[in-house]
Amino acid sequence: MGRTLQNTMINLGLQNACDEAVYQLGLDMEELEEIEEDAGLGNGGLGRLAACFLDSMATLGLAAYGYGIRYEYGIFNQKIRDGWQVEEADDWLRHGNPWEKARPEYMLPVHFYGRVEHSASGAKWIDTQVVLALPYDTPVPGYMNNTVNTMRLWSARAPNDFNLRDFNVGDYIQAVLDRNLAENISRVLYPNDNFFEGKELRLKQEYFVVAATLQDIIRRFKASKFGSTDSVRTVFDSFPDQVAIQLNDTHPAMAIPELMRIFVDIEKLPWDKAWDITKRTFAYTNHTVLPEALERWPVDLVEKLLPRHLQIIYEINQRHLDHIASLFPNDVDRLRRMSLIEEGDTKRINMAHLCIVGSHAVNGVAKIHSEIVKTQVFEDFAELEPEKFQNKTNGITPRRWLLLCNPGLAELIAEKIGEDYVRDLSQLTKLHEFVDDDLFIREVAKVKQENKVKFALYLEKEYKVKINPSSMFDVHVKRIHEYKRQLMNCLHIITMYNRIRRDPAKLFVPRTVIIGGKAAPGYHMAKMIIKLINAVAQVVNNDPIVGSKLKVIFLENYRVSLAEKVIPATDLSEQISTAGTEASGTGNMKFMLNGALTIGTMDGANVEMAEEAGEENLFIFGMRVEDVTELDKKGYNAQLYYDRLPELKQAVDQIKSGFFSPKDPNLFSDVVNMLFHHDRFKVFADYEAYVKCQEKVSELYLNSKAWTKMVIRNIAAAGKFSSDRTIKEYARDIWHVEPSDLKIPPPNEPRDAGQDKTPNGTAA
Questions:
Q1: Where are the beta strands (DSSP E) in 338-396?
Q2: What is the average pLDDT score of the chain?
Q3: Domain that holds residue 388
Q4: What is the pLDDT of residues 83-109, one digit of tens each?
Q5: Which ranges of the chain have pLDDT less than 50?
Q6: How many domains does the chain have?
Q7: Rounded-to-integer distance, Cα 457 and Cα 468, Å
Q8: Do 434 and 384 belong together in one domain?
Q9: What b/e string do you get for 188-219 counting C-beta neighbours within 10 Å, with b at 16 or more?
Q10: In a domain, 581, yes or no
Q11: Do 346 and 434 share a structural domain?
Q12: Which residues are part of the catalytic machinery?
């Protein structure tokens, strides 16, 4: 979520008033804003997407709730010591959190372990351990519409009789200390992005948020007129018409068996009825195609922790496979491929399969990704129910990612096309009229230059590094991962360095290359990549021959509040994942909206950015998905490229020989060995095209006017990538609700009796 103060002032239309009031007190609002801690309750794109979605849902007047876990420790703080990443705990609640309100009156029990007893009246889950879920509510204001939604985060609390109820009179002190065991559930965020770690505590977290949330939803449904009870029990027929639940990846997949457990075991609905309601309630968003990221929980772990849920999953699977077998008799391989249970050394539950079978809609997050989901990853399922699979291209909120972080550009745009674009970003196309307006071109360039100077001053103050604000700011910020190919950027840096040294007199377009992002603490290769970038920076930045022509900076502790500073100052955005690996990307959209040009592969949303702006207005290079598939068929041989490309050979040899690590010449042998022998992401295959494309970038940068015109064409084409558009599509195609652009009257004005009626609609 990042910081809340400035976003709240903007959405409430109070920023100028607050700035002025604080100034009158002899204080500086920006200084105050810098004191607030980021809420870093997620890892990367997926968590930030949810935050943008909350902003858009409130702005569109949807009755929506965001549910999650109130981690005591969020994503670690990253320190760079001697070029290595070191993790520190993110104690973000140390000084309290003024935006949250604990709601102990809505505390709910969550059960773990125990056993299942079957009787004539049905299944009973008994002898469980109970943990209490305490909700904390954070307001989510819409933009200038007097709407405030709620983000509800659950915190784990031990019940007061914890460890004291079972004839455990003996050690009272130990029993109280053991309360920590229960409360550890919401202690810390698992810091992996795009990687599955099958730990018991992680599964506990996933079930904890799901069980608490579903009880909360059902409580709210029963309290409404739709869930009105007859003398016997609640009628749940209208449940899917009143409630839509969107699963943000497979992490909350246990919601499917949990809702079935509530309907069948507790509410005593017949299975078929319960299953129909469940399927119509859930929809699933897939966020990645990397096999190592797909959740596959061991059956024996689920059996120990959630025995009833395992039985329900088996039943769902049995009925699912019976259905497949009736359509495809004797196709045992299809049954194996489509089963929710994977056989092997350890039996595992494929959570993505569970989500597909248990949802009425499945979507990818960019056109190319949704195609890959349909035709490769889940092709058997898409063949069975093609109408279930959709695309919903991701977006970003223009409130935080333009108004808040780049007020200079936002104001400049408003002067030309009015202020309405903030709620309807498609209006940015009106900027095409000004692409040849010399004054506008100069003003756009001026805003960018001011942002660069401001960021340069920030770097100087915080990191004691001096950079040249007239150099091209070439920025690569995102989680560190092999598929995102920070290594390819690193090879380009080494290549530029070698070219300057070879011919110091030759014209060279000065660059400041900024790379930032966190590596998962257990991801050895990602940590080596950080060390390599810092080792290269050490050499490049201290070579007198290079001088100010080339500077390399590793940006420490990349997070939302730092993104808000670096993105508006960027000239060139690096989006260089291997085609077919980045589901969408959202940083790419933020850079586009803030006047950077993109160098990128035809991957994720880059494809649609090129479609909107025209491919000639992005720097597109490298293999397409088809080329990658083709190369896989014939076999990728890294050595071939190394032998054929002298500049690549030189760069790799320097890494290998210890040119960048003279004290430990073999320091990067693991990296080099990976690049030659098991590089799944084919860095060498795209190196030549990447370097050539970068030459075109430098050439255009020399012509400031032509560069800025291309920038304007990009901003004018960025309208599609508002999360408002994304959410309207979810609302229309999946949740079946109508966004309302009615501005609720402020609380100090009396409401019309007629306006008080809310139209019937689903709560998402």
A1: 341-342, 348-350, 361-364, 389-391
A2: 95
A3: 235-392+733-748
A4: 999 999 999 999 999 999 999 999 999
A5: 231-232, 753-760
A6: 2
A7: 10
A8: no
A9: bbbbbbbbbeeeeebbbbbbbbbbbbbbbbbe
A10: yes
A11: no
A12: 287, 478-479, 484, 586, 590
